[in-house]
Amino acid sequence: MSKEKVHLREKVLAKGMIGFYLDYSVKGKRKQETIIGLQKFVKAKDKIERDHNKATENKAQEIRNNREQEILANYFGETNYYKPKTLFVEFCEMIAQSKNDKTSTQSVWMSMIYQLKKFDRNARLMDLNEEWQERLKTHLLKNVKQNSAHSYNNKVRTAIKEAVSRKYIKDIRLVKGIPYIEVRREYLTESEIKILINTNCDNQRMKEAFIFCCFTGLRNKDVRQLTWNDIKTNEKDTFIYYNQSKTSSLENIPINDVAIKMLGKKGEPTELVFKNVKCNAENNNKLAIWILRAGIRKKITYHCSRHSYAVLLLENGTDIYTVAKMLGHKDMKSTLIYLKFTDELKLKAMNSLPNFNF
Question: Which CATH number fits domain 190-350: 1.10.443.10, 3.20.20.70, 1.10.150.20, 1.10.10.10?
């Protein structure tokens, strides 16, 4: 197998630069392959040139490693599995297509791919070294918000791991990810929801759907797709059975009298419960006017109804694990965030402490 080893060679070029080429033998035939586009300084004069030389040498070594892996893969008959020249964009698109198009996950993948094409649409799997990953992080942070950059970079890391798992490439070292910045999640208090119920809205059905979501936690897309067939009533209670759009999981949650009242007159089984509640510019404007009309000075979006539901449950004594189930969360971390917004719980915890007389 020593004959298959790939050597990284250097060659002095004009203007004080050094180029690289690969020198190896395959089945007794010697080959030399110039690495195009990689050059370093013969004598680095300052830190910038020294850093350039180091990055260039790392890139050249990465290419050497990949070429040797490719030759070994061919030697052992693994050609069908080892595909380091596959374009990373195409590999990501393949993964995105495998996602359920009804979930938000696919849309995140497609948004990431859009940024990837802007950054380096010609990058191959064999090119995704640490230096490339750092440049991508810089691009994302310059072009999208911090938390979007965090999400897109995580998808890139997932794709690289998937490429290794599928044997397209050998293992690649991943650089540190982009940190997530916690953002304020606006919500309505119990008293504010009461005020809204008694405040006129220019779209009455949208108002009823919003209040319904404050007491059920449904996302806007889920409430728009809700049919009368999804509403089940037994002798005592009423439940909603629906497929959560984000995760495609089947959920069932009980609903209280306020939510039942918001449903209105029952229609045909396949008929939509709430109509004309789509998130568009017109309805978003009516929602904003309704909030202002109620004297509430918060930036409330439709999704805030879901946040309000979570906080209502917690402040009325529901344990965190039940709240997670009611919200359809698969990861407790998503639910634990709401604990930070419940001042009522903090006050109760503080008041539960014993007092001592000194």
Answer: 1.10.443.10
Q: State the Cα torsion 131-71-34-44 to the nearest 10°.
A: 40
If one counts every other C-beta atom within 10 angstroms of the C-beta of residue 225, the result is 17
Handedness of CA 166, 331, 105, 130 (dihedral sign): negative
What are the strands of the beta sheet with 17-26, ordered from one edge?
Answer: 7-12, 17-26, 29-41
The whole-model pTM stands at 0.58
**What is the Cα gyration radius of the chain?**
29
Q: Is 267 helix (H, G, I), strand (E, B) or coil?
A: coil
> What pLDDT digit, counting tens, does each position of 40-62 carry?
999 988 988 899 999 899 988 88
**SS3 call for 276:** coil
- Confidence band (pLDDT; 50, 70, 90) for 81? low
Structure tokens at 336: 């634990």
Instruction: Encode pLDDT of 21-44 as tens digits.
Output: 998 887 778 888 888 778 999 998
